[in-house]
Amino acid sequence: MKVLVTGHAGYVGSVATMVLAEAGHEVVGLDTGFFAPCHTEGMEPVEPGLSLARDVRDVTAEDLAGFDAILHLAALSNDPMGDLAPELTAAINRDATIALAKAAKAAGVARFIFASSCSIYGAGNPDLLLDETAPVNPLTAYAASKVESESGLLPLADATFAPTFMRNATCYGLSPRVRTDLVLNNLVVSALSTGEVKLLSSGLAWRPLLHVRDLARAAAAILATDLDKIRGQAFNIGQNDENHLVRDIAAIVAEAVPGAKVTFAAGNTIDPRSYRVDFGKFAAAFPDFRFLHTAASGAKELVAAMAGRTAAEDLTGQRYVRLARLKHLMDKGALAADLTWRGERETAPLTVKRERVPVAGPSITQREVDLTAEAARHAWFENHAKYNLRFEAMVAAQTGRKHAISLAHCTSAIHLALAGLGIGPGDEVIVPECTWVATASPVVQVGATPVFADIDPVSWCLSPASLAAAITPRTKAAIVVDLYGGMPDWARLEAIARDAGIILIEDAAEAIGSRWRDRPAGAFGRASVFSFHGSKTVTTGEGGMLVTDDDALAERVNILRDQGRHPTSRALITEEVGFKYRMSAMQAAMGIAQMERLDELIAMKRDIFRFYADALDGTPGLTLNAEPAQVFNSYWMVTAVLDPKLGLLKQQVAAELGAEGIDTRPFFYPLSWQPAFRSQPSAAGAATRNPVAYAISPTGINLPSGYNVTRAVAARVSRTLKSILQRHARRAA
Ligand SMILES: Cc1ncc(COP(=O)(O)O)c(C=O)c1O
After folding, report:
1. Site to substitute for ligand 1 among 459, 506, 531, most atoms within 8 A of C-beta
2. Is residue 236 within 6 Å of ligand 1 at its C-beta?
3. Span 421-447, pLDDT tens digits
4. Over 80: is that where the pLDDT of 209 sits?
5. Neighbours of 201 (CB within 10 A)
6. Which letter does DSSP use for residue 335 in this model?
7. Which residue's alpha carbon is nearest to atom 8 within ligand 1?
8. DSSP 8-state secondary structure symbol assigned to residue 287
9. 460 lines ligand 1 (CB under 6 A)
10. Which of 380, 576, 597, 718 could form a disulfide with 615 if both were Cys (CB 3.0 to 4.6 A apart)?
11. Is the CB of 141 under 6 A from ligand 1?
12. What pLDDT, on a 0 to 100 scale, did the predictor assign at position 360?
């Protein structure tokens, strides 16, 4: 059949055109385009091959020549819109409907399926199931327009013209142009975007529900049946089992959205529209028809499609709320008060422009800006060392160390710690498998041999047992990393190092502000190093610091960082080959401002971790950074390690989060696997020797942890991550 679908670019029409085309009909659309740009995030409507951009009030008999049937969906659908302008609802929903039917009849169109509504039953007796003979009781302009349309259409029925009234239950479900001003859809988006299934009413009203696709399929069934069976007939469309109390719909939605809770808005009201409907007539007339959906399956389908793709503003904004859309078009002057276009139709799809969430980034206040500018003006001549000395004193005080030496970066600090301790060719230095390459590269740079040891499954830091097993007579030192702000079992590491007579160097690049028992990061081993890279908890843009209590080491580092010039050197005379690793005064000034704010910065980092921990609580198969009793974690980077049973690799999760505008970092790859280190002797067999690193690294991912991560950002990231996990769990099942 050749079928005209009016309102084809709306919520139901976008589905009905597809369903009718799938049923083999030649479908033509007609729509004025108010909601055409309102695409569901991530979905692209399939437009019918032919469509007319036309207001339903302007259709003539000539437009309708050659059609076998009309599915008339175009209407002002909102009850609140009806309240705002009842006369417009009457003009568009009733008068235009009757005029359209008359034009159709004149053009020889035999079938006219009208989308009426169960809302015509208004306040029904809750003890009764209302069938098509029940008295109507429309409580809104919308419902009244449907009652009056049916009355206006019925007299047109004759041998040549068969109007049929689909009294549809309240629709829900996924469409390429979804609406959130429908009860179930609204509650799903509320749950996804806020974690609350928020009822604005007391939820004690009855609502029969109908999936949008089942509505379209029912229309297809009506199209396929004899005219005599449907001429002038009204059918309630839905299923008796799908009469729900709104409260129960909320419970169904809460079930579909992990962690969501049902809440009631303050001052919630009683909704007078309440009706339970009998759908037996349609079932009897179409015994082969099967409804495919329930509220529960529809809620799950919406969650699968929309989780991570929706925000609280979708509950009120123009994209998914029809009244808001019309008001928007009127406010900007695109539509006149009678809802006719004044100018160009808007056609560009509405999609959200989401800010990308970066993986890391600093917290810079006016204080940092002012001090850095001050240094730029003053840190010259006799003041050239002033800011570095102050910054160094602050870090020394924070870590309880005697010496703090500011450097170009943490990599140079590690380099100078090794060089200053005289570590070189023939020596072995143990490093953990999972860390940034800068822990190990300087070992190679001084000519020593890095030896890769395993990490602990809980702290993700160097495993004491693996350290002990890696020690040989050539071992001079081990570099222990406080990974992502976490802390290893320092007591055992120190005991092992003491017994073996090896030096420990603490790579605290990622851990300023963390504590193990009462000792701060930076207080462990012969020397500790910090990074002030732009991604770090305390930043100077680039920068590093070495702290130590060892006077001799401090003296060597001071010499080596300054081209090998000794304190007694005369001008431009160099005693040995050194390095150029000083930090500039401007960087030190920024570091001072950051150290002044250290407590605040750590509190912010801990808040960010808490946001994620709350939002991801109860997510199966996901482990976040550990904070055992003896540790105070400054949570440089919130890190999620997935259970390998989920079958998801970090690269895949990163790609899917990336597609949603969320940047991440992979958990550090094992160093022994890195191309740069594969030829090191200890890389051979490392995958079997260091099973924890090789097991955790493939499924670990750093989540955005910059200082711009608010609770809302963490919620968005967490929702997206959870929906990725759910999608894959379903696929795997
Ligand atoms: C564990 C670890 N060590 C060393 C470094 C090197 O720090 P920088 O970039 O300041 O040289 C980093 C920082 O990226 C790090 O995370």
Report:
1. 531
2. no
3. 999 999 999 999 999 999 999 999 999
4. yes
5. 17
6. B
7. 410
8. T
9. no
10. 718
11. no
12. 97
Over residues 71-84, mean pLDDT: 81
What does the alpha-carbon distance between residue 727 and residue 107 come to, in Å, rounded to a whole number? 49
Tokens representing 666 are 């992979």
The distance in angstroms from the start CA to the end CA of the chain is: 40
Rounded CA gap, 406 and 380, in Å? Answer: 17
Banded pLDDT at 634 (limits 50, 70, 90): very high
Closest ligand 1 atom, CA of 542? 10
Tell me how far the alpha carbon of residue 668 lies from the centroid of ligand 1, in angstroms: 12
Cβ 531 under 6 angstroms from ligand 1 = yes
Residue that is written with structure tokens 């080596």 in the block: 560
Give the residue among 259, 540, 203 at the shortest CA–CA distance from 392.
Answer: 540
CA of 517 to the centre of ligand 1 (A): 24
Q: Which residues of 617-636 are buried (b: 16+ CB within 10 A; e: fewer)?
A: eebebbbbbbbeeebbbbbb
Q: What predicted TM-score, i.e. pTM, was given to this entire model? A: 0.66
Partners of 264 in the β-ladder:
199
- Cβ–ligand 1 contact at 539 (below 6 Å): no
Nearest atom of ligand 1 to the alpha carbon of 532: 10
How far away, in angstroms, is 543 Cα from ligand 1 center?
10
pLDDT tens digit string along 496-509? 999 999 999 999 99
Centre of ligand 1 to C-alpha 512, Å, is 12
Q: What is the pLDDT of residue 351?
A: 78
Distance of CA 2 to the CA centre of its chain: 43
CA angle 562, 564, 565 (to 5 degrees): 75
